[in-house]
C-alpha cells in the first residue's frame, strides 16, 4: 500500500473528497486568529491550505512521511513550515502549537496511541487536538462500493471496514479520553463529489494509491475485469455524471492545562 504519489494522482483518487472535508472538519474544530497550527499527515496539503487561509501561512506547520507529498504541500502553501516526518516523531519542541489536527491519517498509523502522544507533546496546555477518519463501514460510498464488489469476486479481499481501526465516533472518543484529553466531542461530517462518468470513478484505482489501489493493481486481468463490472453494476451502470457522498467521523479534545 502506498500514498507516495503526485498531487494530481492523489486528487483524482481521494483529493476530490479531502479538499471539501478539510473545510467541514475545521469548521467543527474551530481556531482563532494568531494561533499556531500543525497538520499531521498533511498529504498534498488540502487541510494545510485551509489552515493557512484562516491563520496565515506563517502560523501553520505540516508533516508527512511522503517526500512527494511534502513537496506538493510546500508548493501549495508557500510560507508554511512543511517537514518530512512520521506522526510518532514530530520535529518540533514541546508546546509549540495551539492546534494540532490530522485528517484521514490516524487509522493508518502503526501505533495511533504514539501518534496522539506526540500530538499532545507539541500542543500547548489548553490547546486543541482533533482528527477525522472515514466511516468505512457505511458512509464512504466510493470505497464501500469498491470493497463490496471486491468481496463478491474475492471473499478474502482486505476490506477497509474490517481491517481499519478508529473509524467510529465511539472509537475516536475512547482514544482521546484514554490519552488524557478533556472536553472530548465528536461529530459526523459529510461531503460529496461528482464524477463525469464511470471511468472517472474507476481509473483512479488503477494508480495504485491506498489500500484500494494496491489491491486493484495486484489482481490478474480476469479478476480485475470482474471487479470493475461489479463496481459499475453497484453504482447503477451510469452512462454519464453521477454524485457520491462520503461520511467521516471527527473527534476533538483539549490538553489539560
From TrEMBL:
CDD domains: AdoMet_MTases. Coiled coil: none annotated. It comes from the Bacteria. Pfam families: Methyltransf_11. One of its GO terms (molecular function) is S-adenosylmethionine-dependent methyltransferase activity. The keyword Kinase does not apply. Gene3D superfamilies: Vaccinia Virus protein VP39. The keyword Methyltransferase applies. Keywords: Methyltransferase, Transferase. Transmembrane segments: none annotated. One of its GO terms (biological process) is methylation. Residues 38-130 form the Methyltransferase type domain. This is Methyltransferase domain-containing protein. It comes from Aeromicrobium ginsengisoli.
Amino acid at each position: 500500500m502506498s500514498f507516495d504519489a503526485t498531487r494530481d494522482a492523489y486528487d483524482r483518487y481521494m483529493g476530490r473528497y479531502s479538499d471539501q472535508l478539510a473545510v467541514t472538519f475545521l469548521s467543527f474544530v474551530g481556531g482563532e486568529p494568531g494561533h499556531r497550527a500543525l497538520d499531521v499527515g498533511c498529504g498534498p496539503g488540502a487541510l494545510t491550505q485551509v489552515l493557512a487561509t484562516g491563520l496565515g501561512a506563517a502560523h501553520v506547520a505540516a508533516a508527512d512521511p511522503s517526500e512527494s507529498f511534502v513537496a506538493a504541500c510546500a508548493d501549495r502553501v508557500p510560507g508554511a513550515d512543511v517537514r518530512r516526518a512520521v506522526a510518532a516523531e514530530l520535529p518540533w519542541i514541546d508546546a509549540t502549537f495551539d492546534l494540532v489536527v490530522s485528517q484521514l491519517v490516524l487509522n493508518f498509523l502503526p501505533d495511533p496511541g504514539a501518534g496522539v502522544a506526540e500530538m499532545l507533546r507539541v500542543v500547548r496546555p489548553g490547546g486543541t487536538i482533533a482528527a477525522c477518519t472515514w466511516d468505512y463501514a457505511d458512509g464512504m460510498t466510493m470505497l464501500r462500493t469498491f470493497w463490496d464488489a471486491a468481496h463478491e469476486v474475492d471473499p478474502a479481499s482486505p476490506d477497509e471496514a474490517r481491517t481499519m481501526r478508529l473509524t467510529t465516533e465511539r472509537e475516536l472518543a475512547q482514544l482521546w479520553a484514554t490519552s488524557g484529553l478533556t472536553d472530548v466531542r465528536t461529530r459526523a461530517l459529510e461531503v460529496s463529489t461528482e464524477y463525469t462518468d464511470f471511468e472517472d470513478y474507476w481509473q483512479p484505482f488503477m494508480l495504485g494509491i491506498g489500500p484500494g489501489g494496491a489491491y486493484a493493481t495486484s489482481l490478474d486481468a480476469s479478476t480485475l475485469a470482474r471487479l470493475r463490472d461489479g463496481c459499475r453494476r453497484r453504482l447503477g451502470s451510469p452512462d454519464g455524471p453521477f454524485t457520491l457522498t462520503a461520511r467521516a467521523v471527527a473527534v476533538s479534545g483539549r490538553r489539560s492545562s
